[in-house]
Automatic annotation (TrEMBL):
Protein name from the UniProt record: Acyl-CoA/acyl-ACP dehydrogenase
Occurrences of domain Acyl-CoA dehydrogenase/oxidase N-terminal (ranges): 6-118
Domain Acyl-CoA dehydrogenase/oxidase C-terminal: 281-428
Compositionally biased residues, Pro residues: 434-443
Species annotation: Streptomyces daliensis
UniProt entry keywords in alphabetical sequence: FAD, Flavoprotein, Oxidoreductase
InterPro entries, per the entry: Acyl-CoA_Oxase/DH_mid-dom_sf, AcylCo_DH-like_C, AcylCo_DH/oxidase_C, AcylCoA_DH/ox_N, AcylCoA_DH/ox_N_sf, AcylCoA_DH/oxidase_NM_dom_sf
Family: Belongs to the acyl-CoA dehydrogenase family.
Amino acid sequence: MDTAFTEEQDEIRRTVRESLAKRCGPGEVKSAVLTGHGYDEDLWRLLSGQLGLPGLTVPEEYGGAGCGGVELALACEEAGRVLLPSPLLASTVLSTPLVRSLGTDAQRAALLPRLASGALTAALAVPGGALPLALGLVGADATEGAEAAAGDGRGRAPDADWSGGGRAGGVQARRVDRTDGTGGTDDGWRLYGEAAQILSGHSAGLLLVAAHTGGFVRGRTLLFLVREGAEGLVRARQTGLDETRAVARAELRDTPAELLGHDDAAAVRDALARVGASAAAALAAEAVGAADGALERTVEYVKTREQFGRAIGSFQAVQHRLADVYVRVQAARSAAYYAAWETSGPGPAASGNGPGPVPGPVPGSVSAGLALAQALDALRLAAGEAVQLHGGVGFTWEHEAHLYFKRAAGDDLLLGPAHRLRDHAAARAGLFAPPSPPPPSPSPTLETGADAAVRA
């Protein structure tokens, strides 16, 4: 297998890096996060119109570039290197693939061209901060290994309760009859509940809301489309640990919604699991880029900072610490791109009748989680060393090293943490399967006199 990047992939990396280097200095990033959208809208239009980043993995028939997960990982790595504030992760990585795999022909034709051009951004709203659980990257509890063994064949628990489960909390959906304007009625949906920590949720023109419906008898989780300005939708930006990732809270007060695709909970579970694997690979590449960016800035600083009459980068102890970071970053980069390549396999064919569940494990479901865990560890190490080796200035809250430090802490909570990713991957791979129960011992029987005589 040839693991070298192609000329086109190298060109994608070079172009994105040069474009971001001109517009994403530390001061510009800090200014962008203070705007209403939480990112530089002019830069997003540049990345969308000239570079086509939102449409990298969208098929050409819908106005995209038709590329795969490796090309998206390249763009994400360069975005992570400068801590780019943008809706790339929320819209391109998480939401667009769900529309592509679950949407009807009419929904894909209406939404995918606008998403690919960047004119429309979308956000995935999962209640209760259960995004990693919904995407199948972590388990619900310590018994996930047994649940996965008895699950749906994709390493997921059969009835995840993350969307509300019919109890208080989460987002609930109910079907209603509405007049279609011609004297007849058709089926519609209404949502009520709340979801928090929605990536780019305050500025997205479209929300993909995961809601529970059917009550206790026919309980299932489906995805719904809620447009900007919908009746009963109240959104507010939240204060987040990582200021370069804008998050929001959304309240749905009997809000009208459109079902994404069809009433097929199995297809929704499968689509979320596939998006979870590809998102983990993309976020791993982004974390690798952030770790490499922090390492690069630290190396430049230790070359110029002098102590005892010489640059501190000449001290062997400093060199050893930076060498450890370099090795961890390179190992994490290899794992991230392997996961991106593996998750680029063919998914379920989209059709007007809705994609059906595909038997067997999701491609890259194990490697993507492990790659993300390794990248998160590398980023945490690189950010910590950046703060330490910058000395007194590195401990000041205003220094750019803290942007990387908060990105490391925020990413660990976004789709992790790392130890839960590893635990769930081990459960999927069956590394710690429970031992088989011993065969039942024969029950004792009473021996009659005739039996004793025959045995004698």
